[in-house]
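Project standup — Tuesday

K.O.: blocked on the structure for the chain from last sprint. Re-posting the sequence here as requested.
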Amino acid sequence: MATTGGSAGKEMTETAVERDDDRLQGDAGKNAARFKRLQGAREMFLDRLKSATAEDITSDTLDSLYVLAMMWKSHEDLLWPSKSQ
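H.V.: unblocked you, prediction finished:
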């Protein structure tokens, strides 16, 4: 079997590898940003929970914590929908 464009094939392979590297670096950056946001949301949730446990926990307090958690979950689902959706 004859091969044509040996150097062109090598360049295409190198370009594909570079694109994969760029994509992986982009994914890593997105994941780091997502982790930072989720960490902030977690800290906010725990702060509210700590302040709620300092006082009597009411259904309103639990409702507000639930709303906060669902707000962040919805926000993250919009930014990064799961592959199953």
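K.O.: great, moving the ticket to review. The mean pLDDT is 71. The CA atoms of residues 33 and 39 lie 10 Å apart.
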